[in-house]
Write a structure and sequence with these properties.
Radius of gyration: 14 Å
Helix content: 10-25%
CATH superfamily: 2,3-Dihydroxybiphenyl 1,2-Dioxygenase, domain 1
CATH architecture: Roll
CATH class: Alpha Beta
Shape: globular
Number of strands: 8
Largest sheet: 4 strands, mixed
CATH topology: 2,3-Dihydroxybiphenyl 1,2-Dioxygenase, domain 1
Structural class: alpha/beta
Distance between the termini: 33 Å
Strand order of the largest sheet: 1-4-3-2
Number of helices: 2
Strand content: 35-45%
Number of domains: 1
Length: 113
């Protein structure tokens, strides 16, 4: 097996509300709409996030992003009026956790120095 990329997925019931929220979270709108009920943000040529509309599974997703500058992430979230718990120390990482309006977990991580 030679995996060379990943698209993480978050399942939501209200795609319009989620599009607005994740647009604020990432500072831009989605990059693609490959089919009805599915939106994508592409962060690199090998990594991205999908929002998928499925009310029977919404609010149960977790996605983890690595970002070397959590201070900037926290500042961007503050400016976008997105609540978060601040930067926390974990065993080998710093983390910044967010809950979207449907209860999905979004975690930003950075290696501890």
């Amino acid at each position: 097996m030679a995996i060379n990329g990943v698209l993480a997925q978050i399942t939501v019931s209200d795609l319009a509300q989620a599009t607005e929220y994740y647009g604020r979270l990432f500072g831009r709108g989605p990059d693609g709409n490959p089919m009805p009920g599915l939106l994508e943000w592409h962060f690199t040529s090998e990594a991205g996030l999908q929002l998928w509309a499925d009310s029977s599974r919404s609010g149960k997703s977790t996605v983890v992003f690595n970002d070397d500058d959590l201070e900037s992430v926290a500042a961007r979230l503050d400016a976008a009026k997105i609540e978060h718990g601040g930067i926390e120390d974990a065993t080998h990482f710093h983390i910044l956790q967010v809950l979207d309006p449907e209860g999905n977990h979004v975690v930003f991580t950075s290696a501890s120095s």
